[in-house]
Each structure stands twice: as structure tokens, then as C-alpha cells.
Amino acid sequence: MSTGTTTYDQAPGLLAERQGSRMQRLARTLGTPGGAVFILCGVLLAAVVAANPNFGEPGSLIRFIGRTAPITIAAMGQYFVIVAGEFDLSMGSVVTMQVVISGNLIGQDESRILPVMLLMLVLGTLVGLVNGLATTLLRVPSFIVTLGTMLALSGLVLYLTGGAATGNPVDSFRQIGRGGIRDVPVVDIIPYPAIILVVLAVGAVLLMRRPYGRTLIAAGDNPDATHLAGAPVWWVKTRAFILSSLAATVAGIILVGYAGVHPSVGRGYEFTAITAVVLGGVVLGGGRGWVLSAAAGAFALELLFTLLNFLGVASTWRDTVQGVIIILAVAAAGKAWRAGLRPRRRDPATTPQTPGTTAGDTTPHTPGTTAGDTGPTPPVPGTTTGEN
Amino acid sequence: MSTSTTTTTTSTRRRAPITSTGIVFVVLALTIVAGAVLTAMSGRNFFSPGNISAILTGTSILGFIAIGQTLVILAGSLDLSVPYVTSLTSLVAGVIMAGQTSNIVLGVVVALGVSALIGLVNGLVVTLLDVHGFIATLGMGLILAGYLATNYKGSAGSAPRDFRLIGATNIGPVPVSTLIMLGCALLVILLLRRTRVGHHLYAVGGNREVARMSGLHTTTPVVLAHVLCSVLAGMAGLLLLARLSVGSPTIGAQGGYDLMSIAAVVLGGTVLAGGKGNILGTLGGVAIFAVMDNVMGVMEVNPFLKDVVRGVVIIAAVAVYARRTSARPPRFGKQPLGDRALQEAS
Q1: What is the rounded distance in angstroms from the CA atom of residue A275 to the CA atom of residue A132?
Q2: B339 CA to centre of own chain
Q3: Best residue in B77, B80, B118, B134 to probe A by mutation, most A CBs within 10 Å?
């Protein structure tokens, strides 16, 4: 392909994302799948408020954010794994495990809250470590590894509990998920889950801007190149699995508050989280997407369910609507990413390539192209993320 | 590729004469030996005709689905909608048959037609809309789940006696259902080995871009794989109908056939990324699961603990293959990442 020379004519060193005014950049960002999900959120919110004006009050909005916090946090955890090009199917089982542990070990003893929470975090880290090391060092596909941990953990939890609801943690622990700061002007109450969500979201954004985040995206985009650049890909990916399990742990702690202790809490969480992440324009196969888009994807999903609720759609149709939405969203996102990958190439010799490699269908690197050809593709994944 | 020299030397130094399918069957043999010993310790005979028949019966349903799943995975996609297709066909066929022997053919044809249609939609979404197979079939699964939950509150339909015989008849110790499953496996093996589209399936799964540049129609094999996968899932649904004599909207999801079939395929040595693997290995993987289930059943292991054992075995078994394949030269330029990761770790 002869595009290597043409690009050096256009402003070298100036990436596409840095061009134009702030407004132009914002508009361009909203055109990408990662930005479009925010528009989707806005549209859905408007629709929900139109269907039920009470929902638009600040008080009920902030409560909604609090309710959505667990799945949003789980989606952000899943994001780290997906952007690294892997899957974490064990998330739901980790949520269940943590819920059952807190129910059984804390009991009515307030002094046990901190040690048990520490234990839960350690166990979460351990699950993530096992997932990560089995994926990277044993080279078992993450789909299989996390499927195995999912079966093992959920089996163990069901065996220990006998499949029935057991244990009831002390109320002050349940306040983490249930309570909030009261008597706040305007919104009346700020739920603790909303605060946890905001803190974790800020932390996740900062983390993705640090060298770790950049390396993680690079490792998801092209592990070989990242390895050759000197990054410890195996450890970067393992830490992504640990982050995912820890996110599931936090989601579990919150869920104890208002869902109670039951072995069915957390069932299906992994697929909902993956759906949310994908809805946020993050590409399965890794290397593309923004962490807040994943969070927005979770919000869009919950808003969709709320809308269906208010419209009186039978809850059994929820799944169907969700299925249609994710297929359409991913199809649209795939088209948009591909369109965005070669916006300013005018060389007629460049034919649109259908990307398709072994891992994910949307990797932009077509095998067989020379190194010089990567020059013209402006959206280096790291910058895409940072500039959004 | 800069490291190709080192990879070649490692491969020449320790070239294993045994194929990956061979390893699957070695593992299967080990499972059978361990199973026989454990069964004997419980005071039963593992090789009694009744027990063998039970194991073979256990292979048939997962077998149908795993054969289809192998095709889809070889083509570089995934199918997570199979459990819902299974449930739907069991209901559709059960309702159409309604206990009348004269309706059997109609019921079977309509049920398989519906499942083929679902597979066609899956395949078209994956190929034309360029949606990742994981999402496309997850979405299709959700769509079907919603339809099933809305329209069927419980079991429906009934299978006539003649149809139930398919699930109940044995030839010697071998159930007819298992023979049908093996027949399907044979047909699919012939498809993969002897036909043009079968070879194209491997090519597209290995590297779609290279296949396209080589002048193949990349859509046809993928769509065909999805259609066949759904039809085979539909046959599993028909078999479940024959066994239970009623159609059930939750039977597929209860079995967890989506993830278990993928696990069986990968356990059988097929590469999850596509392009490499075969049906024989998958049958071995299914048999390993069936033997494990049977032995745990004989030993009266807690059903929840069975899942724990399954999970650990899946990871451990696949780790064995993965470590082994990492010693071979890459087929399509993918470098063995884990080897280097190991070097870094040590």
C-alpha cells in the first residue's frame, strides 16, 4: 500500500484529536461510539422524564444514581479487562461470593465489619490474581479461565449455603448500600453508593491517564508491539483482572445494602456488565474505548429498563429489548469506529479494509501491512482515550 | 518476524509426535481409568452396560450443541444463543405435535426451520453488520429469552409416544440418540474435510483478512456455521422433548449449554480464536464431561460441588494444551505471548 508517503504532507506531529477548537473536538468526540453513549443517555433520560415527570426531580435522580452504582462500578471493572482484550465472566460469581461472605461472617457484630471487608478485598484480589495469571502465564483463553472460576466459585457458594438465603449482616454495614448523607439541600439525600461511584469513577479516569492505563490500552490493542516496547504485558493484564474482581467486590458490598443476602444476588452480572461496556462503545478484543463511556453504558442500560418500566412494558420483554439494543448499538459503533479510523485519507489506492483478526473483529491493524503504513492512522488509542 | 528463529528451534527440539486431538483422548482415557477406579471404590462396576449406556446418554445433548459450537468457533465466532434455541425448538415441536403421531414430521421440520432461521439471522448479523459473534448471539439469546418468558409460562406441548421412543430406545448399550449425534458428527466431519466450504471455514476462522485477500467469500462459511450450529441446537431441543415428553422454556438455560458447550469445544483442543481444531476433539471433550458427571453421580457428590470440579478441570485441562501449543511455531504470525511472559516472570 502506498499511503506511507502521502501522510507526511499533512501537518506532521499534529494528531487529529488535537486539531480544531474545543467545540469542534467535543463534536468529534460525540461522534465516536464512546461519546455517542452520552447522547444516548441524555435521550433516554429525557424519555424517562417525559414518561414520568417525577423522575426528573433532583431527589429521585440522585437516588437513581445510587441504585445504578453497583452495575456501573461492575461495568468500570469489566472495562479494564475488556480494553485489555480479555473477558471476565467470573464477575457475577465474585459478587455472589462477597455478598454471602459478608452475610455470614459479619453477622450482628459491628466490630467485625472492617476485618471482614478487608478479607473480602483480599479474596477479590486473589480471584483476580488467579484469573490473570492463568490467562497470561498459563495461556488459557480468559473466556475459559473466568468461566472456570465462575463455575467453581458459584458452586462453592451454593454448596456452603445450600442455595438458600443465609445470614444477615448488621444494619450499620447495610447502610453502605442503603443509607446516605441526609438533609442535603436540593437533593434531600446523597446516597453513599453515589459517592462511592463518583470517587471510583474519578480514580478510574486518573488511572487510565497514568502510564498504567496507557499501557493497558496498548496491551489490548497489540500485545506483541507492547511487549516489544518493553512493557510487562502479563502483569499489566493481571492487574486488570484484579481491578475487575475488586470492582465486583465493591458492587457486592453495595448490593448487600438493598438486595440482601441471597446466593442469587449477582447472577448474570457478568453479562450485564459486558453489555454495558460494549454499549459504551468499548470494542471487544481490546484497545479502544473510554472508561467513563463504559459507566455511561451502564447508565443507559438502567435508564432503558426504567423507561420500559414506566411505559408499562411487561418485564419479560426487557431481555428482548436489551438484546435488540446491544446488537444495533454494536453494529453502529463498529461502523463508526471504522469510519473514524481513516477519515483523512484521500489516496484512492487505499481500499476500505474489513478488519478481522483472530481476537477481535475490529482491530485496525490489518496483518500484512508494513510498519510504514501505520503512520497515517491518527487515532492512537491512548490519545483517543485521553482527549475525550 | 524477529523471534521466528528462536521459535523454530524450540519446535524442532521438542517436536511432540502426538496431535492435540491425541492429547484429548489421552486425557479421556485417564478420566475413564480414574472413573473406573473411583466407581469400583464405591462398589459399582463402571463398565456395566447400564452405566455405559448412562454415560453415552449423557453425551448426546451436549454433543449436538458442542458439534455446532465447534463449527462456529472454527469460523472465528461464538454462539451464546444455543440454550434458548434449544428451549424454543422443544416448545415449538411439542406444541405442534400435541401428542399426535401424524404431526411428528411437521413438528420436526418446523422446529428445525425456526432454528435454521435464527442461525441465519445470527450469521448475517455477524458477517454483514460486523458485530462480534459474542455480542450478536448474546443479543439473540436475550431476544429469545424475552420471547420465551413472555409467551410460555411453563411447560407446553406433548410428544407422542413414537417420538418419545427416540429418547428411550437402545441398540445394545448404545442409545439411539447418541447414534444420531454421532451421525451428525460424521456428516460435519465430512463437511469440514471433504468440501470446499469446509476448508474455507478453517481459512476464514484462521484469518478472515487473508482469506478475503485470497479470494474467498468470507460470509458464506460463517453464515453456514451459524445456521448449522442453530440447527444442531434445535436437534438437541427435539431430543430433550423426546426425553421429557413436554417442551420447556427454561430447559436450555438450566443446562447452561452455551458456556458448557464452549468449554467442551476448547477442552477438545479447538482454539477459541478460530481456525484450528476438529470435531473428534470436541467429541472427546464432551465425553470427558459425561464421564466426570457420571462418576460424580455414582459417588454422590453434592451437585454444587460438581460445578467446582468442572471449573477446576476446565482450567487445568486447557492449561495443558495451551502450554503445549506454545511450544509450536505460530500458524498465523501470532507469537506465543505466554512463553515470554514466563521468561519475564522467572
Answers
A1: 21
A2: 29
A3: B134
Nearest-CA distance from B20 to chain A in Å? 15
Residues of chain A contacting residue B324, judged by C-beta atoms under 8 Å apart: none
- CB distance A357–B326 less than 8 Å? no
Query: Cβ of B337 and A274 within 8 Å?
Result: no
Residue of A nearest to B264 (CA): A144
ipTM over 0.90: no
Q: Which of B134, B207, B344 sits opposite A232 (nearest CB)?
A: B344
CA B310 to chain A, closest CA, distance in angstroms equals 7
Contact A323 B306 (CB under 8 A): no
CATH architecture, domain defined by A3-7+21-387: Orthogonal Bundle (1.10)
Strand runs (DSSP E) across chain A, as ranges? 180-184, 188-191
Give A135-163 as a 3 state SS string.
HHCCCCCHHHHHHHHHHHHHHHHHHHHCC
Beta bridge partners of A181: A190
Helix (H) or strand (E) holding B154: none
What number of C-beta contacts closer than 8 Å exist between A and B?
Answer: 210
Alpha helix (H) ranges present in chain B? 4-13, 20-41, 49-74, 82-97, 104-127, 133-151, 161-168, 176-194, 196-206, 208-213, 219-244, 251-255, 257-267, 279-298, 303-325, 337-345
Residue-range domains of chain B with CATH: 45-288 (1.10.3470)
Determine whether the interchain pair B341/A152 forms a contact, defined as Cβ–Cβ distance below 8 Å. no
Global pTM reads: 0.81
Q: Each residue's pLDDT tens digit in chain A (388 positions)?
A: 444 444 444 444 555 556 677 777 777 777 777 788 888 889 999 999 998 888 888 888 888 998 899 999 999 999 999 999 998 999 999 999 998 888 888 877 788 888 889 999 999 999 999 999 999 988 888 888 999 999 999 888 888 887 777 777 788 888 887 888 877 777 778 888 999 999 999 999 999 999 999 999 999 999 899 999 999 999 999 999 999 999 999 999 998 887 777 777 888 888 889 989 988 888 888 888 889 999 999 999 999 888 888 888 887 888 888 889 888 888 887 777 666 654 444 444 444 444 443 343 444 444 443 433 333 444 444 334 333 3
Ordered by start, the domain boundaries in chain A are 3-7+21-387
Say yes or no for a CB contact (<8 Å) between A234 and B125. Answer: no
Q: Do B302 and A159 touch (CB under 8 A)?
A: yes
Answer yes or no: do A285 and B132 touch at CB < 8 A. yes
